[in-house]
Amino acid sequence: MLKQEIIENMQHIVENCMGEETAACVATCPMHTNAKEYIRLIRDGKGEEAIKVIRNDLFLPGTLGRICAHPCEKQCKWNEGNSPMAIASLKRYAADNFDNEEDWDISTKPENGKKVAVIGSGPSGLQAAIGLRKEGCAVTLFEKLPVRGGMLRVGIPAYRLPRNVLEHEITYLDKLGVQFKLGCEVGKDIAFDEIVKEFDSVVVAVGKHQGRVDRSLEHFDAEGIFSAAAFLKEAAMTADVKKAGKVALVVGGGDVAMDCARTALRVPSVEKVYSICLEDSYDSMASSNHEIKGALAEGVKFNHAQAIKEICVDENGRVSGVVLKKCVSMFDESGRFAPSFDEQDTRELKVDTIIFAIGQGVEGGFAKDILVQRPNSTFECDKMTLQSSTNEKVFVVGDASGESVIAIQAMATGRRAAESVIRYLNGESMTEGRELKDTWTYETKLQMPTDWSEITGTREDMQELNPVTRIQSFDEVALGYTAEEAHKEADRCRQCECKLCMKECIMLNDYTECPKALFTEYLEKGTENVERMIAYSCNECNQCTLKCPKEFDLKSTFKALKEVYAEQNDGLVPLEILQPSDASQIKECDEQYCTRVDATPIEKMEKPKKQKTKYVFVPGCTVPAYSPEGVENVVRHLKDTLGEENVGALLQCCGKVTRFIGEAEKFEERNKKAIDILDEMGAEVIITVCPSCYKVFQETAKNQKVIAYWDLMKNLIGLPEGTKGVGVGSDVVFNIHDSCVTRDVTSHHESVRWVLDELGYQWEEVERNGKNTRCCGVGGMVCTSNPELYERVYTRRANDFNQDNIVTYCGSCRGTMQTAGKDAVHMLDLIFGKQYTKDQAQPRGYKTEEEMWANRLETKERLNQFK
Predict the structure, then answer these.
(1) Residue 800's Cα: distance from chain center in Å?
(2) What CA–CA distances, in Å, run from 434 to 74, 233, 385, 440, 446?
(3) Angle value at C-alpha 22, between 16 and 24, nearest 5 degrees
(4) Counting beta carbons within 10 angstroms of the beta carbon of residue 316, is it exposed (0 to 12), middle (13 to 18) or buried (19 or more)?
(5) Counting Cβ atoms within 10 Å, is residue 614 exposed (0-12), middle (13-18) or buried (19+)?
(6) How many angstroms separate the CA atoms of 118 and 201, rounded?
(7) Would you give the DSSP letter of residue 268?
(8) How far apart are alpha carbons 602 and 378 in whole angstroms?
């Protein structure tokens, strides 16, 4: 049974793994458009596929590509590099170049006999109508205006959104079978209660068409004063504003104010446009930067930290100018909006037109007897379901719900309401299985650390018409991307996701999408019902933890799983393919293949006393099977430098393979056998050449210090006599392979390189080495449990090198690199051999299991000569 700490580790990974977390651009979009995916497709030159991805969520790709406030860009990872992706512009590129009516999905479910009315054809109403029609409802959409689109049509200037683009995309609803009643004002041409009675459900989607002016000012109703809504509407319908004068003043610092200012410049009678706002700088204005830049380029004159103190009128009752006063601050000490002014700091401005862009409201009088209108003019409704608080048949979306500020959020409310209506009509729970974030901006858990010093590139802005000429008409200003510009911009996308472990670990990709998904499966199904081979395919190299921003420990969990599998099988590994590994461990711990060499034989001591061997060399299992002569040479070197009377040796397995295959009790038993002998020998220092032995004894040898032979040479005893400079003049340039077992033991890395330098051999570093080294493939006994995976792992590792000659200090790694096609030598070959040159390249080591055991016996004989 899994230990509680392992279960808790699994739960920790499931709760905090970011592998399934959404990119910030997708999470921030209320409609959760897969921007990451369509940008990738644009980057790859697959525009037709990109527009399909967009249309999965948005029926207005060309429209939103032009006018969306793109909250996604505000959360783009590139903001850290001060250059967010042009997500909306790329959407427009896909729509303008690859949107084909023939590809539009106009399928609907069979007619369900239900009739639903939608009041208002703005983005929220249109989206709700689509969702309802797709479910088989008969949908009738009532629109007060003679045109479709709501504020998209009469609130956004044509130079930003050409009318043909909007209308073309709205025809999608015609193809679905939505019925439109234009020029039909609810409350005037048809009563609201009549609609409520006639239809099975009603969606109220009226926008904020009720403009506002500052009614606290004297002469607020003088000729030449407009609300933003009225001014933009008239300009949108007629390309003119009849009562506009020559010099206009726009009041406000948001995007609507910029629309008004730039529209005013295009009105035939207007010659000059001023803008005032309470904010004291461009940076603090609520408007988008690109809108401010556009207004500046076109000649709008900005006046920051200003407000109207007085409106002046002429003898005909028309605006003739204003007196401005200085805004000292916008907020009080508690952060509430409470502007304060210096009434003495004033100046006059001659204007004959004032446009107030200071907010808008919902015209809700048509529903006053059925719906409750809040003080801010929106209707009371449930936030999750958007169902009216006073009539269960009625649902409220968009501006009328009090939720939306921008078009994309309005659309999200339309989608949410459509689901609510269907649930209502079907008599289902209105909330079960729903989350507000499904149709709302939410903060993703995804956190991707990025070194921006290594990343170059800036945002690719669209070309625009010349400001001097473009204000002469309402022609579209932004020209759109060329293919080259779009590909260049799309190529900047970081494709944010946290699957760094998946990008590194070959094994994980064979079994899961990410650690969260994998350990969810373990927790839900139980370890006994999940493929066992997963645990036995882990190399235990720890790269997953190194790559993980949260440093999740997967290795310990897989080790624990293997122990549970063995525990359930009477302490033995259950995989038949791994059972020979246990048999080998039995032999490697057997007296036939083991020996103990004390520093001073007991019988030679002058006085009987407890045997003591200060330094004990433990060569491990792989090196004795590879190079009996190398083992002997190490002992001679140690005795020569540390003293004959201080050095001994122990040919005895540490039990690492037993641990690899999960036989925990047997590991303790086999390892204890070695530890007991070391204690009996009175060992103070264990000297290793095997990275696995080093790690195991560091953990289990409580009475000894463990040091690698390479560190000992560098720090104390030096190279064997006569070996310094042996490699000088060799034609070989080595790559070094650091063992993943001791990736965290930097002294080994440094000492091995020191030895090579002292020997005089040339070597080149590779990127994946040292602390970041990759496993050769043997780790976890994957070489035996999953040979096909083993081959892929060692092939990848071999490809990390830029030289054919590899030197390593792990016997298993050396053999694997040789299997991978490299000329691989062990450090001992270079230390105790003659100068190594390219013409000596050949396969080394034992070729059969019989040879392996024969070498082991030879090593035993060579060591016994020191007794």
Answers:
(1) 26
(2) 26, 38, 9, 12, 22
(3) 110
(4) exposed
(5) middle
(6) 9
(7) T
(8) 98
* Positions of the chain with pLDDT under 50: 605, 608
Largest alpha-carbon pair distance within the chain? 130
Burial of 845 per CB tally in 10 Å (0-12, 13-18, 19+)? middle
What is the pLDDT at residue 608? Answer: 47
Q: Are 67 and 156 in contact (CB under 8 A)?
A: yes
Token output for 72: 């996604």
Strands 647-651 and 595-597: what pairing? antiparallel
Task: Write out pLDDT tens, residues 82-100.
Answer: 789 999 999 999 999 999 9
Beta bridge partners of 762: 733
Question: Do residues 8 and 523 make contact, with C-beta atoms less than 8 angstroms apart?
Answer: no
3-state class (DSSP) for residue 286: coil
**Which tokens in the block code for residue 58?**
């948005």
Token reading at 594? 């083991």
Single out the residue of 352, 348, 356 nearest to residue 248, CA to CA.
352
Distance CA 446, CA 844 (A): 48
CA 723 to chain centre: 52
Which residue's structure tokens are 């000596």? Answer: 840
Q: For the sheet with 272-276, list strands across it.
A: 225-227, 353-356, 247-251, 272-276, 301-303
Based on the number of CB atoms within 10 Å of its own CB, is 826 exposed (0-12), middle (13-18) or buried (19 or more)? buried
- What is the value of pTM for the model shown? 0.82
Closest by CA to 642, choosing from 607, 616, 620, 618, is: 616
Q: Phi/psi zone of residue 231: left (φ > 0), alpha (ψ -120 to 50 degrees), beta?
A: alpha
Residue found under tokens 């008969």: 138
Using an 8 Å Cβ cutoff, are 400 and 379 in contact?
yes
d(CA 283, CA 266) in angstroms, rounded, equals 26
Backbone angles phi, psi at 727, to 5 degrees: -90, -5
| Residue with token string 């190399």 | 539
